[in-house]
Amino acid sequence: MASAVLQTLQFLLVARTLGAHEFGIVASVVAITSALLPFSSLCLGHVAIMRIARAQDSADTSLGNGLAVTTVTAVIGIGIALVLGHYFLVEPNIWIIVLLFAVSELVFTKYIEFAVHIFMAQDQHGIAAFPFNLLWAVRLACATGLWAGLTQPTALAWAQLQLAAGVVTAAIVLYVSVRLIGFPRVNLKSAVKDMKVGVFYSIGAAAGNMQADLDKIVLARLDAAATAGAYTAAYRLLSMASLPVLAVLFAVRTRLFRSGHHGGVSGALGALSGVMTVAGTYSVGAAVAIYWASPALPWLLGPSYQLSSEVLRALCALPVLLAVRQVCGEALVGAGEHRRLSFLLVTTAALSLVLNLALVPIYGRIGAVAAVYAAQGGIVGGQR
After folding, report:
1. Angstrom distance (rounded) from CA 245 to CA 288
2. Phi and psi, residue 92, nearest 5°
3. What local confidence, expressed as pLDDT, does residue 270 receive?
4. 94-103 and 2-36 helices cross at what angle (nearest 10)?
5. Are 253 and 330 in contact, with CB atoms under 8 Å apart?
6. What is the SS3 assignment for 286?
7. 228 vs 14, 19, 21, 175, CA distance in Å?
8. Sign of torsion, CA 115 271 4 225?
């Protein structure tokens, strides 16, 4: 919960300080890095939770394998991000911003995330909360400095600050991890074995991220950065409204892998029965609250976000679809049905791309909204 609060405060400060245009540039770059993020480490963090929960690997070996694979795959991902930024984004000198965000997210955020997964696998939930809480606290401090005028409020300035926050946090988190877990050990044989499993998690996660972010890239290229910024601000608030559901699901993932290992999908769903009730009730309440509060968004973020209210109201039902998708997706992951989930996510990502390219040039942000509902509905229907 603390992480969600810190993340929300950081978003509000950055969005208000940068304004819709500069924030739109950030959003389009982050959309590219988010699509590549799961391939940095090949989701070995999720595999580590499964292996450690089932007593199939040790924490120090999982940590060592994860850091080694992350470093190699991140370098490849950074190169791909630069190529995609060159071809899909039109802002001048965008490659510098892409490079800074790619290094921040694909390297340092992944290092931090991997440590979280190791502690979660050992049921050390109190320690597992520390890395991301620290990251968001440091980012919030950087966002406060940006808001206070310590540097010029541009997308480039925020990219530099976010990278600095990632470097500082990763150094602290890795130091603590080594002290508590032991020095990381690399086992090439087990790393290759885990990569064969993790690649399917990566494909599914990347497709999910791509499906969620394609609209921002298309809007930034075919409409305007300011429109993309206003749209992204509304979408980001909706995503943050779903963070409590994700936090609960993440907290029970170790138990979920154990239940799914013995009982398949039905066993995993049984372990999530209580979560489903809470997630459904919460998401419906969140949808109603978002619809009611949407007119206040320009007051909160600034006058350049007038379009955000319209988008927020149009997308207010999204938390309900996201809650169903997240619960069903976790059940499939817990049961080892990652290939099925990956295929579904890749299919809906392709659907999202086609719909955005067809609708956004004609209908703008309204076309993006329609594409979001169609793609999310497709994922929910395919998981059932």
Report:
1. 16
2. -65, 145
3. 63
4. 120
5. yes
6. helix
7. 15, 11, 8, 39
8. positive
Report d(CA 220, CA 216) in Å as an integer: 6
Structure tokens at 263: 């009982």
Measure CA 358 to chain center: 26
Amino acid letter, residue 53: A
Within 89-186, residue ranges assigned H as helices are: 94-103, 110-121, 125-147, 155-181
Q: Tell me how far the alpha carbon of residue 132 is from its chain's centroid.
A: 13
pLDDT given at position 142? 96
Kind and range of the H or E element at 24? Answer: helix 2-36
Give me the count of residues in the chain. 384
Cα dihedral value 348, 350, 351, 353, nearest 10: 130
Residues 44, 193: Cα–Cα separation, whole Å: 10
The token pair at 259 is 């239940």
Tokens of 105: 């997210």
Query: Would you state the structure tokens that stand for residue 94, as one six-digit string?
Result: 């965008």
Structure-token pair, residue 272: 């999530």
Half-sphere exposure of 96 (CA within 13 A, CB side): 10
CB-based burial of residue 360 (10 Å sphere; 0-12 exposed, 13-18 middle, 19+ buried)? buried
Cβ neighbors of 117 (< 8 A, separation 6 or more) are: 45, 46, 48, 49, 66
How would you class 183 by CB atoms within 10 Å of its CB: exposed for 0-12, middle for 13-18, buried for 19 or more? Answer: exposed
Q: What is the pLDDT of residues 28-83, one digit of tens each?
A: 899 889 888 888 888 887 787 777 766 677 888 888 888 999 999 999 999 999 99
End-to-end C-alpha distance for the chain, whole angstroms? 29
Residues whose CB falls within 8 Å of the CB of residue 138, separated by 6 or more in sequence, listed in order = 165, 168, 169
Per-residue DSSP letter, 316: T
Of 285, 253, 281, 256, nearest in space to 271 by CA: 256
In the numeric block, which tokens belong to residue 241? 């409204």
* Cβ atoms of 214 and 32 closer than 8 Å: no
How far is 228 from 231, CA to CA, in rounded Å?
Answer: 5
Task: Report phi then psi at 306, rounded to 5.
Answer: -60, -40
Give the whole-angstrom CA distance, residue 230 versus residue 98.
Answer: 20
Find the helix or strand (DSSP H, E) in which 280 lies.
helix 273-293
Confidence of residue 262 (pLDDT cuts 50, 70, 90): low
